[in-house]
Specification:
Structural class: alpha/beta
CATH superfamily of the largest domain: NAD(P)-binding Rossmann-like Domain
Strand order of the largest sheet: 3-2-1-4-5-6-7-8
CATH class of the largest domain: Alpha Beta
Number of helices: 16
Distance between the termini: 49 Å
Shape: elongated
Order of helices and strands: HHHEHEHEHEHEEHHHEEHEHEHHEHEH
CATH architecture of the largest domain: 3-Layer(aba) Sandwich
CATH topology of the largest domain: Rossmann fold
Largest sheet: 8 strands, mixed
Strand content: 15-25%
Amino acid sequence: MQLSNDEIRRYSRHLILPEVGMSGQKKICSTSVLCIGAGGLGSPIAMYLAAAGIGKLGLVDFDTVDFSNLQRQLLHGTEDVGRHKGESAKDTINSLNPNVEVVLHSTRLSSENALEIIRPYDIVVDGTDNFPTRYLTNDACVLLRKPNVYGSIFRFEGQASVFAPHLGGPCYRCLYPEPPPPGMVPSCAEGGVLGVLPGIIGCIQATEILKLALGRGASLIGRLLLFHALEMKFREVKLRRDPQCPLCGEQPSIKELVDYEMFCGISPQPIESGANPDEVTVQEMKRALESPELGIKVLDVRDPDEYEIAHIQGVPQIPLGSLNQRFTELDPNHMLYLHCKGGTRSMKALKFLREQGFKYVKSVKGGIQAWSEEIDRSIPKY
């Protein structure tokens, strides 16, 4: 391929690097990358790859833009709220560099479609935020012999690596053979994330992709890079391929993609609303608050910082993390409705209280977010 005069001007700062030059830029422009996720990590990855001149950029995302995304997902602007993330991302990328071919995969990556979606691309970059998709991405990349440029973020910490057994390194399963129990690791929606953190980790991932495209530098293959933003410290952990790994080891037992929701212990959601007997709706919580004669108590199990952001008048709070020390403050003979932000932590609290002998406990489905949507819109969503 030949670079046009406009492309030479655009990539001139690459071209004058001896390690890149005209031949290296042509490699970049001939490389195809699949970015799984167009959110926090996907934003800096996609924007910097587009600016660098990656030839084809695939984006896998089925979600829409929410106000809470704007704090860190720079692919999207205020005017994009409610739009499909893929369409918003494509517009941003096209404005950065119209020479990049953007391919949208507006679907959830699954065991049924992953191999078909990933196969045409040279490099895969993991910008996901959940364990089933991470294991799915890893397994598909190993089976297809594609480099998997990994990154993850939470609160103030991030990590990055490149998983590529066909290039001599380990895979994600070598590092994490088993997923954590469901709900053990909070999501960013529950635990929060510093807005600039995905920018830092995403830029590291984009750097690794460009190095792979160029065939230059020391890759993160066999290394896990850890970053702590509050301490502004990087540290590195050496990774080795596990000869017993069921996917990339000496005698692999995984030969095809599996059910990753089941592998991660995530039960399918009930089809009918309210099908879970341990849950009540926000309408039922409202009746309990308005009718004290029912004898139903309501408890907020979120953290104090969240309570300060938004709370329901008259509802007391015991954070989930303190419940094991303070559950004796509660009367096990009263019906108790537990609520959190969206329903995950209240279910954890329910399980704990049941183990302590509380028989009359329910979790409020959707938590204070559902309360804001369905009962009182003056309560802010966060």
